[in-house]
Design goal:
Its EC number is 3.5.1.4. Belongs to the amidase family. It comes from Mycolicibacterium hodleri. The protein has 486 residues and is of the alpha/beta class. It has two domains: 410 residues, Amidase signature (AS) enzymes, CATH 3.90.1300; 61 residues, no CATH class. The protein contains 17 helices and eleven strands. Strands 4-6-5-10-11-9-7-8 form an eight-stranded mixed beta sheet, with helices on both faces. Helix 6 links the parallel strand 2 and strand 3. The mean pLDDT is 97.
Length: 486
């Protein structure tokens, strides 16, 4: 396959690439080599921080030689090149730095349950993507690897913490890459990079073999994609529970990929463009994108009302700060284990160090109260949504923000999140409540940058159906960033 053919494959989504392999038109090895060609052309983005080409070629060759791709013994994504976020997607024998200088020597001996599901589905893993330290920032500019460049503009962040994955997908290196989301870390980069970014509902997949949950239920993993159908297919791949999981979401009646072929009817949608946090105005171009989406949904036959659920924003922000401070104290302990010595301040990012120091002094009572506050505000939020099925809100309150805004220490963890929430607005409420949420690239700024619009609901099925409907009504597939490698 020549370079031109490799570049042309950039515009084919994951399911489309898998169909090329299943039909015999291409081999898994050829698809992988084409993706590596595109990755080499996109090196300037600094999206991928660990090349795993040899292991990818071995896996692709095994798929080709086994005959399983031709007999239908594997899933609909088999043979597709795939990248893993370098945090929360452990692959045995591959380095996992998690954006931290303290973890440069860490190599896990076990793969995470979700990664095993990706491999079982036949996705060909050939690299790890850039992420901020411990996923702390909604931007991707770690000191250990340097910033990832947004393919749409070098002046704005690709978002975070799944920014490396988002940049690789947006540029056309791969059709999909994994991500994780604790306060918006899939949806923020999806908005910044013009992608589909779904945070699943709590308990949709497993944190095995090590964990039972992520940050008291705030964290969920999934992927960044360019099409809704790819997001649905990847969610099918990781849906389920591992033995001994503390809780799990009920399985849907049908696969998510099959569900999106069914048109949603008369969905009750509540919408607002206001920020849930005081003093955080919404940019006029973001307001316009949300309002246009509301009008489209109404024209499609859904019931759209103005309004928003209520909750105590101070209680939410305080609880998020406590949970992150304790999580970062855990990072310090893990860093000590990897380094074989007591970590020093220079081993971590300045903002992480602030969180760690607070985590060391957080009492058990304060931690328990933070968990209680999360549950209490979830009930208030859900009560406010009782008459509606879906909440339609901005993904970000602003267009893609500049570098150097969302990763700086602010003196306290709460002050750090006050700055973050002034940009991210509603994203954290999906993590607090455990609701599913999806960001769709439905808006564009006057300068051509993407604007994400967010839908939230207790379950993914209604979101994916609405997303597929919107993808048809207001298609985004023809938009390409300046750094597109196709």
């Amino acid at each position: 396959m020549d370079t031109q053919q490799a570049r042309e494959l950039a515009s084919v989504d994951a399911l489309g690439q898998a169909e090329l392999v299943a039909s015999g038109e291409l081999t898994a090895v050829e698809l992988l080599d084409a993706a590596i060609t595109r990755l080499d052309a996109a090196r300037g983005l600094n999206a991928v921080v660990a090349d795993l080409f040899d292991r990818g070629r071995r896996q692709a060759a095994l798929l080709d030689d086994s005959g399983a791709l031709r007999t239908g013994e594997v899933g609909p994504l088999a043979g597709v090149p795939f990248l893993l976020k370098d945090l929360g997607a452990s692959l045995a024998g591959a380095p996992e730095v998690m954006g931290s200088r303290a973890l440069r020597g860490y190599v896990p001996t076990e793969s995470s349950w979700v990664v095993e599901r990706y491999l079982d589905a036949g996705l060909v893993v050939f690299g790890k993507t850039n992420t901020p330290e411990w996923g702390n920032h909604c931007t991707t500019e770690p000191l250990v690897f340097g910033p990832t460049v947004n393919p749409w503009s070098p002046d704005v962040t690709p978002g975070g913490s799944s920014g490396g994955s988002a940049a690789a997908v947006a540029a056309g290196v791969v059709p999909a890459a994994s991500g994780g989301d604790g306060t918006g870390s899939i949806r923020v980069p999806a908005s910044c990079c013009g992608l589909v970014g779904l945070k699943p509902r709590r308990g949709r997949s497993s944190f095995a073999p090590d964990g039972g949950q992520g940050m008291e239920g705030l964290v969920n993993g999934h992927a960044l994609t360019r099409t809704v159908r790819d997001s649905a297919a990847l969610l099918d791949a990781i849906t389920g529970a591992a033995t001994g999981d503390p809780y799990t979401a009920p399985r849907p009646d049908t696969t998510f990929l099959a569900a999106i072929t069914q048109q949603p009817n008369g969905i009750r949608i509540l919408t607002t463009t206001d920020s849930p946090f005081p003093g955080a105005p919404t940019h006029p171009e973001v307001v316009a994108a949300v309002d246009a989406t509301a009008s489209t949904l109404a024209a499609l036959g859904h019931h759209v009302d103005q309004g928003q659920p209520t909750f105590d924003p101070d209680a939410v922000a305080d609880a998020i700060a406590v949970l992150h401070a304790v999580s970062n104290a855990q990072l310090h302990a893990f860093g000590k284990q990897v380094l074989g010595r007591e970590p020093e301040e220079d081993d971590f990012e300045p903002s992480s160090w602030v969180m760690m120091r607070e985590g060391f002094t957080t009492t058990g009572v304060a931690y328990a109260e933070a968990i209680g506050a999360v549950h209490a505000q979830t009930r208030r939020f859900a009560a406010g949504m009782a008459a509606h099925d879906v909440l339609l809100v901005p993904t970000l309150l602003t267009p893609p923000p500049p570098y150097g805004l969302l990763n700086q220490p602010r003196g306290t963890t709460r002050a750090f999140f006050d700055v973050e929430f002034a940009t991210t607005g509603w994203t954290t409420m999906a993590n607090v409540t455990g609701w599913a949420a999806i960001s769709l690239p439905l808006g564009v700024t006057s300068t051509g940058l993407p604007i994400g619009v967010q839908l939230m609901a207790p379950d993914e099925t209604v979101l994916l159906r609405l997303a597929a409907q919107l993808e048809t009504a207001t298609p985004w597939s023809g938009r390409r960033p300046g750094a597109w490698v196709g």
